[in-house]
Amino acid sequence: MKPIRNLIDEIENGNFESPQELIKTRPDADCVHGGEFYFFDINIHRTLILIEFEENGAATIVWAGNHDDYELTFKNNRKVIKKWLRDNDWI
Question: In whole numbers, what is the pLDDT of the chain averaged over residues?
Answer without folding.
Answer: 88
